[in-house]
Amino acid sequence: MQSLSPVQLALIIPVSIVALDVIQRFLQRKLDKKGLSLPLGPTPIPLLGNILSINREKPWKTYTEWHAIYGDIFYLRILNQDVVVLGSRSVAVELLEKRSKLYSDRPFVATLEPYGIDCMFGFTPYGEHWRSCRRIFHQTYRADTSLDPIQCNFVKLDNWPWA
């Protein structure tokens, strides 16, 4: 069996990585159960996405150009991260303030459940359980309810048992 030369290996490895990335993206889109489409945006390059298209010193100029082409909301991919850019203040206020219940939540962290910390209030996703935890937290730890008058008298330095 003939071995591959270093030049052939140098060509095969990047080509196979790009091919695997294209196959993975194709399968991911096929298996996507939501079926939600992303906004229009510049066409990404496999693996790198749009990172080479963004001006390094003044990225806002690139975003302004894309805003003129694709509209107030556009999609781009930076490395393997999907990014949706909101190009105007009015759209940002509409989506992030007025419709915040639709778009706000905590990120999913897969390691919470195996380590037994999925019940911690700080990691709880928004919903009824989160609201009840927040209500209990505020009732318990508000400044006016955290110490009752008897506890306040005991805390004074002259009332300590060893004083």
Please give a structural write-up.
The protein is 47% helix and 7% strand. The protein has 163 residues and is mainly alpha-helical. It has a two-stranded antiparallel ribbon with strand order 1-2. It is extended and about 85 Å long. The model has no long low-confidence stretch (mean pLDDT 80). Its cofactor is heme. One of its GO terms (molecular function) is oxidoreductase activity, acting on paired donors, with incorporation or reduction of molecular oxygen. Belongs to the cytochrome P450 family. This is Cytochrome P450.
Strand content: 5-15%
Note the run of SSEs as H and E.
Answer: HHEEHHHHH
Structure summary, number of beta strands: 2
- Overall pLDDT level: 80
Question: Order of strands in the sheet with the most strands?
Answer: 1-2
Task: Note the gap between the termini.
Answer: 89 Å
Categorize the overall geometry: extended
Q: How large is the count of helical segments?
A: 7
- Uncertain residue segments: none
Estimated radius of gyration: 27 Å
Output the keywords.
163 residues, mainly alpha, two-stranded antiparallel sheet, 7 helices
Quick structural gist:
With 163 residues, this protein is mainly alpha-helical. 47% of the residues lie in helices and 7% in strands. A two-stranded antiparallel sheet has the order 1-2.
Q: Helices, strands, pairings?
A:
Blueprint lengths: L5 H26 L27 H12 L2 E6 L2 E6 L2 H10 L1 H4 L24 H14 L1 H4 L2 H7 L8
Antiparallel strand pairs: 1-2
